[in-house]
């Protein structure tokens, strides 16, 4: 999988294809530096105080509220008016606050702002990977997988075991369908990158 991605990205870069990078991050309201430059000419806290300097970092207590940020940009910079920034409501992992519906709504608003026929690079976080329709998983009964494949007119052999049947699956992601409407393509990072 990683080799396939590396081959694709190398070819796209050699072709000078317009690549846009999409990702999410967060920052706490109380985020501050833990180390700073020090003036070594000041020898005491009295000297610092009399020179209107501080003797250490003053950081707010606690982390405070969390801003969650989603944005997209290219080597030319961020896309204007494309940032999605909101205040988080829970204290856990920030990805828990994002879901497929929220992401798709934002994604639909930025697509018209992008140059035509670009490549959008994104990771495989679950809300980027909502399927257009529900497809079988390994928890399904073998007969249900066979029935689903038959309904979709996907050829399969009666001798196949369940894991082999699952390899016949296909399914498109909602965001890929949205991007396709604007002539864009999505390239996904390999898992865990």
Automatic annotation (TrEMBL):
Supply the name of the protein.
DDE_3 domain-containing protein
Under the heading InterPro entries, the entry gives: RNaseH_sf (IPR036397)
Q: Which organism is it from?
A: Trichonephila clavata (Joro spider)
Q: Which GO terms describe its molecular function?
A: nucleic acid binding
């Amino acid at each position: 999988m990683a080799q396939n991605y590396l081959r694709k990205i190398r070819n796209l870069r050699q072709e000078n294809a317009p690549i846009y990078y999409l990702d999410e991050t967060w920052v706490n309201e109380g985020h501050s530096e833990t180390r700073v430059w020090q003036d070594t000419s000041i020898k005491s806290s009295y000297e610092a105080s009399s020179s209107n300097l501080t003797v250490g970092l003053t950081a707010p207590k606690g982390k405070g509220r969390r801003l969650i940020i989603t944005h997209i940009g290219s080597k030319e910079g961020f896309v204007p008016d494309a940032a999605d920034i909101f205040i988080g409501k829970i204290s856990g992992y920030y990805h828990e606050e994002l879901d497929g519906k929220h992401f798709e709504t934002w994604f639909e608003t930025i697509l018209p702002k992008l140059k035509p026929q670009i490549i959008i690079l994104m990771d495989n976080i679950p809300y980027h990977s909502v399927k257009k329709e529900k497809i079988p998983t390994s928890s399904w009964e073998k007969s249900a997988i066979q029935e689903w494949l038959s309904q979709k007119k996907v050829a399969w052999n009666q001798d196949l075991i369940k894991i082999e049947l699952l390899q016949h699956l296909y399914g498109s992601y909602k965001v890929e369908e949205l991007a396709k409407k604007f002539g864009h393509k999505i390239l996904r990072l390999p898992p865990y990158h």
